[in-house]
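USER:
Make up one protein:

ASSISTANT:
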Amino acid sequence: MGKRARWVWLLMAVGLLMPQAAPGVVILDSTWREEGGGRGRETAGFGAHIRLAHEPQFRSLVSLSYDDGETWGSGSGTWIGNDDSYGYVLTSAHVMDDTAAREVVVRTDGGTILRGVRAWKHPGYKPEGDYTGVDVAILRLARPVTDAGPPPALYSGSAEKGRTITFMGFGTRGIGSVGENERFNSGTDKAAAQGLVEEAVPLRRMSAKVEDPGNYLTVFLPREDGGVENPLGGPRRPVSRLAGLLGSGDSGGSAWMPLGGGWVVVGINTSGDGEAQYGDNSWFVRVSGVRPWISSVFPGARFVGDGDAATLVAAAPAPAPAQAPIQPAVAMPSPAALPGDVGGCRPRERLFAFSDEAWYPATVRGAGKAPGACLVRFDGYGADEDEVVAASRMLPWNAEGPGSPLSACQPGLEVVAETDGVWYPAKITRGGAKGCTVHYDDEEEEDETLPLRRLRVLR
């Protein structure tokens, strides 16, 4: 994604440059005409896409306002559940740039207006540069949401490529031959479109040598007659009559995929290129790649993998109580002397597995050939990255991270610190007012000062 430009309109998502909010997505010319669009009727023609967005499984979509509700649609989000006191909304980090949580209000599907009280941005996100794959934030609301249906399931699998996703938001409208344009705007209703996932790029660890975190899904908009070459090698014709792209203001909304008997959220609307016309792309944060971070902020988030499709027909479980967020960090000692008290290789059991000199969140797929070894799948990675891990290289799952928390900076102490949900070995060199300075076992990584909450110790 390093060479791909973000849409200028995505920089307007905070509402500073948008004169009026409007319902989103850019759609096929042919569908627009079939639905009543035409010269002098530019705002018509979006009925099918509005009806799609109003299907009951998508009730958790919310609209964001930055001026106490005077205008809506400057950003979008998805309610993902409650704890005893608050509701939680998943959105894009860039819609919170230069905006405090208490300056944001959201409108639910049932029409309730709720104010934000706290926000967390993914620690890998930076406003400058290309950080599409970690462009994610969570907004805590002043009280629980009660009129948006059941909390949605978030996808933790890796089978998005080649699947049709449905994405939605409250952003600007348009058609493929023109792109987004205000003359297509009318009202503040939500709208949805569909696309084929051309790319499902796994999460990469960011470093001085790797600035692109990966972790994104790509959708390309072909023309109805197949007249635009697909540079990604996929089909040259739209996946359905409801195909489209994101529009400005859709940022922070959600992309959904059918799974088993229900639907799962697979992506967060983030960016695109060109003018949102035929031959352009839309990109989405891959939810599975940021699962550990989401769970660290809101442990009640419900995740479902490819092997858990049957659970989607059942009622969603009650959310877990909230707890303090875990910020990403760094490292940990060698696994040689660490206890691997994960037993039985029970399929779908969560754990941490040591691989490539770091501890990764993973899920058990089955037993390995060696005694005590398990076949695991790493979060955000596909089956081709599955690995058989020895018992000594596994640790029990804890939403806060492997091992135990630290109470103080202890120079010389070997610790683990987390970046994008992966925990890397390091040693504390000194303490200070801003936290502990650590030196990574990987000599290519620079020393870093981290708060205590970003460090764990393995005993």
Remarks:
- The longest strand covers residues 191-203.
- The two ends are 39 Å apart (CA to CA).
